[in-house]
């Protein structure tokens, strides 16, 4: 049946059995999950993505990708059940129907940089007149099905209709809270010149779902963003990938670096802490802006191979030699045991009111100085 695992697999496991709770954890596998087993073959067959086929490298063994030197993600049904049976989940809102932020500018001037936090890992990066969306998710649920799975607790900070013309999308990996097919197809229909960039192995899956102009990249590979002044580099992170239960580590997870005329921007996607941050900082830093994940980190014994704590995210900011850090991957979908506000509170405590930390409101945009 494959392995049941941490982090991104939470969205898939949530469809298997519903168990309401005051913290709105919608549908987790239980110790009495006898009724789960008949649906597992169907789940495996329906949702898994094709496997990448390519030459062996220092992070691909011919069948699976891995992060060199990193611990493997937590494996096994027993470990998952241990977490579920001893959960101490922090509080989350039922739903916060908050108004959206103002529409971002259509473009920024050459040399200018603006960042807008939309929700979860979705940010709008406007650099040198080019508009780039990161891991765009406008779905109500991050799940392979519409009727179950983690549900958003607030609307996106920027309405889809208020997005400026999007030139490119970067996708860090194929988990449901980072790769949302409905959002990507809507973006493509709205912005016909859209270009999509993802890690190795994702192109076949995305094109089979109707997406065009898809490019896949390996770590440290660089490309130009069309005729724009920007270049894009895929960089190592520590995570894993899968859409179903039979395609674990079948496609590459990645961070992204945008290089403009007046500095570089780092987008971390989803990652644990590790030496990859210093490697990227030494090779491509310093950075004008870094956008780093801080949420879904509890319990640490289960999540640390794939998600970093807020204090470690602050350390990653130092490793990258960044002038400004904007956190993301929090406050939108309840995916782990940290509460809705916990990650931001822990990050503020670690940063000690450092002016380099910008915690943006949902829908808030800000110009980043050169």
> Going across the major beta sheet, what is the strand order?
6-5-4-3-2-1-13
**CATH-defined fold name:** Metallo-beta-lactamase, Chain A
CATH architectural name: 4-Layer Sandwich
Topology, number of strands:
13
Shape: globular
State the CATH superfamily name.
Answer: Ribonuclease Z/Hydroxyacylglutathione hydrolase-like
Query: What summary fits the major beta sheet?
Result: 7 strands, mixed
Report the sheet-strand fraction. Answer: 15-25%
The gyration radius over C-alpha positions equals: 19 Å
Keywords:
disordered N terminus; 19% helix; 9 helices; globular; 370 residues; 7-stranded mixed β-sheet; single chain; 6-stranded mixed β-sheet; Metallo-beta-lactamase, Chain A; alpha/beta; 13 strands
What's the arrangement of secondary structure elements?
Blueprint: H1 9-13, H2 40-47, H3 77-85, E1 113-119, E2 122-127, E3 130-134, E4 168-170, H4 181-190, E5 195-199, H5 202-208, E6 214-217, E7 222-224, E8 231-235, E9 255-260, E10 263-267, H6 276-284, E11 289-293, H7 300-303, H8 310-319, E12 325-328, H9 342-351, E13 365-367
Walk me through the structure:
This protein is 19% helix and 16% strand. By secondary structure, it is α/β, with parallel strands linked by helices. The protein has a single domain, classed as Metallo-beta-lactamase, Chain A. Strands 6-5-4-3-2-1-13 form a 7-stranded mixed β-sheet, covered by helices on one side. Strands 7-8-9-10-11-12 form a 6-stranded mixed β-sheet, with helices on one face. The protein is globular and about 55 Å long.
